[in-house]
Design a protein that fits this description.
It contains 2 helices and 4 strands; from the N terminus they run ββββαα. By secondary structure, the protein is α+β, with helices and mostly antiparallel strands. A two-stranded antiparallel ribbon has the order 1-4. Strands 2-3 form a two-stranded antiparallel sheet. A hairpin with a 4-residue loop joins strand 2 and strand 3. The structure holds iron/sulfur cluster (SF4) and FE3-S4 cluster. The site of iron/sulfur cluster has 13 residues, from loops. Iron/sulfur cluster binds next to loops.
Length: about 100
C-alpha cells in the first residue's frame, strides 16, 4: 500500500508534508511532490499536514484522482528527494483559496 499526492498539490507545493515523513519518500519537481510507493510505510503522518488536503491513502483515492497513483510511482523514481520544508509555489495562497481551503 502507499499514500498518493494528488492534483491539489500542483501549483501549491507547500511542503509541510515532507517535514513529518519518517522515511523521506517525497520527491519533487518544480510543480508538486510525488510519493515513492516502494518507500512509503503507510504511516499517514503527512495527510493532516497538507493545507490543501492533497494526500490520500491509495485505497481512498477519489475516482477523478486515480491517475495520480501511477503518476506518483513513475515520477518519484526520477526526481530528487525533498525532505525539508521550503518556500511554496508562487501563487500558492491564491490557489489554496480557489480550492476552498
Ligand atoms: Fe511518508 Fe508516512 Fe506520508 Fe508515506 S504516509 S509519505 S511514510 S509520511
Ligand atoms: Fe503538496 Fe500538500 Fe505536501 S501542497 S507539497 S502535498 S503539503
Amino acid at each position: 500500500m502507499t499514500f498518493v499526492v494528488t492534483s491539489n498539490c500542483n501549483g501549491c507545493r507547500f511542503t509541510d508534508c515532507v517535514a513529518v515523513c519518517p522515511v523521506e519518500c517525497f520527491h519533487g519537481d518544480d510543480k508538486m511532490l510525488y510519493i515513492d510507493p516502494d518507500e512509503c510505510i503507510d504511516c499517514g503522518a503527512c495527510v493532516p499536514e497538507c493545507p490543501v488536503e492533497a494526500i490520500y491513502d491509495e485505497t481512498e483515492l477519489p475516482d477523478d484522482q486515480q491517475v495520480w497513483k501511477q503518476t506518483n510511482a513513475d515520477k518519484a523514481k526520477g526526481l530528487p528527494v525533498v525532505n525539508e520544508k521550503g518556500t511554496p509555489s508562487p501563487g500558492a495562497e491564491d490557489r489554496k483559496k480557489e480550492l476552498g481551503f
